[in-house]
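Example is below:
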Amino acid sequence: RGAPVPGLGPGRLLVAREGAVPPGSVFHRSVVLLLECSPGGGARGVVLTAPDDDTRGPAAAAAARRRLAALWGRLSSPEQQLRVGTGGPVARGGARQLPGAVTVLHNRSGLQGSHEVSNGIYCARNLESLLETENDEGSEDTTTRASVLFGYAGWASRQLDGEIRAGGWRVLDAAADHVFQHPGATLWATLTAQLDDGHRRPPPQRQQAQMPFPPQQ
């Protein structure tokens, strides 16, 4: 446990430090998108770097794809990019049915039953509610991208704060490209390299402030 970490909340990415989690864990070299987080309280997020969820059996993946295809077809999307994967070890459900904990990350604004997690990243926790929605006028030409994630990652009160203060995670703001453009297999390496490069750069030299008016005598 630890004191609350300032600035921690929904829309932030957790990037695991090298060696913090042993190989074989879903959190090894992982990137997690925080969906819920309260100061000093618990937290919930989804892993963006887990392998595609082929082990769940074709039934669950096919059911999710059919339901989303019905939604995107109704929205007349010119293109669709759907991914079915693992969001974390908690409440993944059975292999032959859609589990209770389903998270749909997508880039379509104006969908009933969704809320914006970060700029351009929307989250829905109910596939059925998305099928009843209408398209937003501003997103007609948007390329539809979505990830259906089974299960989630969860932390008890102040557990995540303690892990961050112990050096297990690095934190940065999430962008839509992190979720929809980068393959999960390369996202951790890409963000880790960016963070390491930022720490290696020398701090910018401070320039002497210029007074807008001469000091009064």
Notes: The chain has two domains: 12-50+153-200, 59-150. The longest strand covers residues 31-37. The radius of gyration is 20 Å. The longest helix spans residues 58-74.
